[in-house]
Amino acid sequence: MNREYHKWFSPVLQRDMELLIFGHAGRAVLFFPTRTARFYDYENWGIIDAMRPQIDNGEVQLFCVDSIDAESFYNANIDPFTRIRRHLQYEQYLLNEVIPLMHLKNEGSYLETAGCSMGAYHAINFAMKYPWMFRKAVGISGRYDLTKTPGDFKDLLDGFNDESVYLNMPSQYMPNLTDDYLLAAVRNLEIIIAIGETDPFMTGNKEFSELLWERGIPNKFYVWDHNAHRPKYWRKMTPLYI
Fold first, then answer.
1. Domains in the chain, number
2. Rounded CA gap, 124 and 62, in Å?
């Protein structure tokens, strides 16, 4: 299996950023890590190895990016206004630094986003904000409105809401999306949502899937037994959906 490690100083984030690439060809997948996790965790958890047949066959090429969630949504030491703006800087890093690398390393035109847990939020939100760039988006065990409080999970913006927050919560902005170009592009995405039946995010996932259908946006919604919010489940789910 081809494995590449990359590290460079990001001008927009003003810090070094790292990522790993697995594979040599196929669908280029922007693979977001879980909550406050790192770019190497999917490899450490055996998820990359679970996808080895697809990777070695040239079906997929995974770009495992790093997270800065600890500096944005999960940074309780800064105010919510600053949290969401740090997230927007991360988005610019992806657009202007990571996506060009994906095009450089992959000759195909098929780009995809995917992620588990918090990575699912990033994958779905990023694809729906820039749907013309992608052909598929996969969210596994995710939540798509970080201002909600399912189960023991807190509102990551502490009740704060402004336009930037609204425009980064798919469950909030999708019902009101009226731009015909964006709607058409989102409708062309292959969207896969997977969740465990007892996961605290289950209700939100079901409502989000239904919301998409109401907007004429096809999606596939899969429910797994139990909570399914663990690497041992993701090792089974990722080869099926990514």
1. 1
2. 16
